[in-house]
Design a protein that fits this description.
CATH superfamily of the largest domain: Response regulator
Number of strands: 5
Radius of gyration: 19 Å
CATH architecture of the largest domain: 3-Layer(aba) Sandwich
Strand order of the largest sheet: 2-1-3-4-5
Structural class: alpha/beta
Distance between the termini: 18 Å
Length: 225
């Protein structure tokens, strides 16, 4: 039941973000998410970027930032490296591990450090660039616009991922928070058969849990919970 509730909560949040994103499609401004635990620095970055014509959302820790990325699908992420609870490195690692398509979002690290090892680690994780504090806002604007211009716009999910009818049905109900036993009763199947189809969908999507499978399938519009 706990896992089913986790699926439902994740999909409810994600679905709301997708609907808000679709409703805002007419809005020409590009969305930037700034993940920065120092409130004063975050406010200065947001104010400058808004003045330059961007839509900016701020998150004040790594966990909040990761949730905001899933919820809002920003065009670019600015993320502090050193944060309590979850570092910027951990945010990027979890993000790309959850869904490879997030690798298409330009991800820039904010850091007060010029440590070479840290920069190499970030780039190995897939970071696009580093912005050193104290921030030169003209340089930040130049980097942001350049990275947005280079960003490759892709469809919601690679076309090679195909789920059959039963996989779609069972994963859709799982995304709605139903347990395998409840899904079995709804579809007139055995619990074992339900688990088989969900596991098959999970394998095709390349994830470890049904929560991740439901999120990836929803992001790719393979299911509509």
């Amino acid at each position: 039941m706990a896992e089913a509730a986790a699926v439902a909560a994740a999909i409810y949040s994600l679905d709301g973000g997708l609907r808000r994103s679709q409703a805002a499609m007419a809005e020409p401004r590009e969305k930037i998410l700034c993940i920065e635990d120092d409130h004063e620095t975050a406010a200065l970055i947001a104010e400058d970027l808004v003045d330059r014509g961007f839509e900016v959302e701020v998150a004040y820790d790594g966990q909040e930032g990761l949730s905001a990325i899933l919820r809002t699908m920003p065009d670019l992420v600015l993320c502090d490296v050193c944060m309590p609870a979850m570092s910027g490195f951990e945010v990027l690692a979890q993000l790309t591990g959850l869904a490879p398509r997030f690798g298409d979002i330009p991800f820039l690290f904010l850091t007060a450090s010029t440590d070479r090892d840290n920069e190499l680690r970030g780039r190995q994780l897939g970071a696009d660039d580093y912005v050193t504090k104290p921030i030169d806002f003209d340089i930040l604007f130049t980097i942001v616009t350049a990275r947005l211009a280079r960003a490759t716009r892709v469809g919601p999910w690679p076309s090679v991922v195909k789920l059959n009818e039963r996989e779609v049905e069972t994963l859709t109900w799982a995304a709605r928070g139903k347990t395998s036993l409840e899904i079995a009763k709804i579809l007139g199947l055995s619990k074992r058969t339900v688990d088989f189809h969900i596991d098959s969908a999970r394998d095709k999507l390349g994830v470890a849990t049904r929560v991740q499978a439901a999120i990836k399938a929803t992001l790719g519009r393979l299911i509509d919970p």
